[in-house]
């Protein structure tokens, strides 16, 4: 089975879901979950320390603080100098945290109500056990000051469960927020670790399931994206095949001044193995050939839309919002082919309830690829509102337009019309540049042309697109300056490595 090659897609739970899992896992758990969590975190801390030293553990007033007391106890037992800062009232700690606090004291530990100054030579590790999934509001006063001091320590900074100050559901910094170099999260992934500000705040993310099989206890509303989700499609081609077996992908866009967008999309589609790639341009003055990619065939956009037998259209790269563009979007939605709408095609849909209704009534769901500003237009809200709850925004678009949607950005969210969602962890900020979205549209068009269904194609394209960006940036040492056109050959290489693995290929697990 091809799927055995790939790490399974792990479940992701918002706070309410984690609470449901905990409620079923906690009673009678031996050892108690907090003991398991603390022991697992201490093992990671020891790896980060790599020798003797001084550790500061900052504990909060809830069970996240309880995890911190357990970590402190293990590190002290391992011979480290451990200082615990705890400003709460022991009598008000929840039961598990109270037991962990008592055990810390029994083992000779003590607490300080203020953050102590660093020892000579500084801390070797600071541990953030202030707030986890129970954070209710922005940190202020004493705790805001503690966060600023912890963030200024030039040593590994380990967050327990989630960096304090980060909203576990949305990935939004609520105010001052711990800047972790490493985060160890317990039981299951939370969306806030993976999207918006989460990846910046978490540093290197480690999941410790602490022997809890979350999905056996409560259904997960979301999952991470791994190739396991579409592994069934990753078989080598049959020898007895020809270009007609892999479909025609058509890219529609390229208004005057924006022809490059359609060409980028077309080149990407060619690299992802569509049988033929046709580019339909709005700009009548364009040269009818891409000299560097002569495999592409050029048409006028209306001509291409009228052509019979096209398997998949991607409409939007460089399209503009002219009347002619509206006519093309209107016609494309009415076609029975697979359909991707991107960029200005989405802006035209946002302005026109008629197009929205037509989209929602298509016999095959379309694939929509908005960035947050386009999403805000589609939802009639603001970019800030979209970013405040990216999962809700993606699910609303998918539900209203009966389409598969990717809300792009750090930790892209894929949502289907039934309300399930996925978060992608591949990709990097060098990809925040013009033309990158056009390449995604081209990859999508190719996979759809090859006969993949909308969901498989979108999950694969989003993951592959990010992976290609990671590969180019790693190979060239780029933080910025990535060119969109560099992505397509890298995506081709990553895709083919999925289909024909080299023996050295380990299962892909981005976060561990
Ligand atoms: N219950 C258990 O056995 C387990 C709990 N776990 C840990 O427990 C955490 C959740 O614990 P809790 O539900 O107690 O929540 P937290 O420990 O995250 O925080 C809750 C406490 O913080 C206070 N608070 C919230 N926001 C505040 C703010 N802005 N300023 C000041 N005080 C604020 C609340 O009033 C409450 O006292 C998880 O993140 C995880 O670290 C893990 O050990 C796994 C097992
Ligand atoms: K924390």
UniProtKB/TrEMBL annotation:
A GO MF label: NAD(P)HX epimerase activity
Details of cofactor binding: Binds 1 potassium ion per subunit.
Annotated residues for binding of (6S)-NADPHX: 63-67, 132-138, 143, 161, 261, 318, 371, 438
InterPro entries: Carbohydrate_kinase_pred_CS, CARKD, Nnr, Ribokinase-like, YjeF_N_dom, YjeF_N_dom_sf
Boundaries of every YjeF N-terminal domain copy: 13-218
Enzyme Commission no: 4.2.1.136, 5.1.99.6
Requisite cofactors: K(+); Mg(2+)
Reactions catalysed, as given in the entry: (6S)-NADPHX + ADP = AMP + phosphate + NADPH + H(+); (6R)-NADPHX = (6S)-NADPHX; (6S)-NADHX + ADP = AMP + phosphate + NADH + H(+); (6R)-NADHX = (6S)-NADHX
GO terms classed as biological process: metabolite repair; nicotinamide nucleotide metabolic process
Binding site for K(+): 64, 128, 164
All copies of domain YjeF C-terminal, residue ranges: 226-498
One Pfam match: Carb_kinase
CDD domains referenced in this protein's UniProt entry, alphabetically: YXKO-related
UniProt keyword annotations, A-Z: ATP-binding, Isomerase, Lyase, Metal-binding, Multifunctional enzyme, NAD, NADP, Nucleotide-binding, Potassium
Annotated binding of AMP, by residue: 408-412, 437
Family: Belongs to the NnrD/CARKD family.
Role played: Bifunctional enzyme that catalyzes the epimerization of the S- and R-forms of NAD(P)HX and the dehydration of the S-form of NAD(P)HX at the expense of ADP, which is converted to AMP. This allows the repair of both epimers of NAD(P)HX, a damaged form of NAD(P)H that is a result of enzymatic or heat-dependent hydration.
Subunit structure: Homotetramer.
Name assigned to this protein: Bifunctional NAD(P)H-hydrate repair enzyme
Organism of provenance: Zoogloea ramigera
GN (gene name): nnrE
């Amino acid at each position: 089975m091809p799927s055995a090659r790939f790490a399974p897609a792990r479940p992701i739970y918002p706070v309410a879901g984690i609470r449901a899992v905990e409620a079923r896992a906690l009673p009678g758990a031996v050892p108690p979950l907090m003991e398991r969590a603390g022991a697992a975190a201490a093992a990671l801390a020891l790896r980060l320390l790599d020798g003797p030293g001084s550790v500061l553990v900052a504990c909060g007033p809830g069970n996240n603080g309880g995890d911190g007391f357990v970590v402190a106890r293990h590190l002290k037992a391992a011979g480290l100098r451990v200082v615990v800062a705890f400003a709460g009232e022991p009598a008000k700690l929840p039961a598990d945290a109270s037991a962990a606090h008592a055990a810390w004291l029994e083992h000779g530990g003590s607490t300080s109500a203020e953050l102590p100054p660093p020892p000579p030579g500084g801390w070797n590790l600071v541990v953030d056990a202030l707030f986890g999934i129970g954070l209710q509001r922005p940190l202020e006063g004493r705790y805001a000051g503690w966060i600023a001091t912890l963030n200024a320590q030039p040593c590994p900074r380990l967050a327990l469960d989630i960096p304090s100050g980060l909203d576990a559901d949305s990935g939004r910094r609520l105010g001052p927020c711990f800047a972790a170099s490493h985060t160890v999260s317990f039981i299951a992934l939370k969306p806030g670790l993976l999207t918006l500000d989460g990846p910046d705040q978490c540093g290197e993310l480690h999941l410790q399931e602490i022997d809890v099989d979350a999905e056996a206890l409560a259904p997960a509303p979301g999952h991470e994206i791994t190739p396991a989700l579409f592994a069934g499609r990753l078989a080598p081609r049959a020898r007895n095949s020809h270009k007609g077996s892999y479909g025609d992908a058509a890219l529609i866009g390229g208004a005057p001044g924006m022809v490059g967008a359609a060409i980028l999309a077309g080149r990407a589609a060619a690299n992802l193995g569509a049988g033929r790639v046709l580019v339909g341009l709005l700009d009548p003055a364009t040269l009818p050939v891409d000299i560097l990619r002569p495999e592409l065939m050029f048409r006028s956009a209306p001509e291409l839309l009228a052509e019979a037998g096209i398997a998949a259209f991607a409409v939007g790269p460089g399209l503009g919002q002219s009347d002619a563009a509206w006519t093309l979007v209107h016609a494309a939605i009415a076609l029975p082919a697979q359909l991707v709408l991107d960029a200005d095609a989405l802006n035209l849909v946002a302005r026109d309830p008629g197009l929205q209704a037509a989209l929602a009534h298509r016999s095959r769901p379309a694939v929509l690829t908005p960035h947050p500003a386009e999403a805000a237009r589609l939802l009639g809200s603001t970019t800030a509102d979209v970013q405040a709850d990216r999962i809700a925004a993606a699910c609303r678009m998918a539900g209203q337009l009966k389409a598969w949607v990717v809300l792009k950005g750090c930790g892209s969210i894929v949502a289907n019309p039934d309300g399930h969602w996925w978060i992608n962890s591949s990709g990097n900020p060098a990809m925040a540049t013009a033309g990158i979205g056009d390449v995604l549209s081209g990859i999508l068009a190719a996979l759809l042309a090859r006969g993949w269904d909308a969901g498989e194609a979108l999950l694969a394209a989003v993951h592959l697109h990010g992976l290609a960006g990671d590969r180019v940036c790693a190979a060239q040492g780029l933080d910025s300056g990535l060119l969109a056109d560099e992505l397509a050959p890298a995506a081709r290489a990553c895709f083919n490595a999925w289909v024909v693995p080299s023996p050295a290929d380990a299962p892909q697990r981005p976060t561990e």
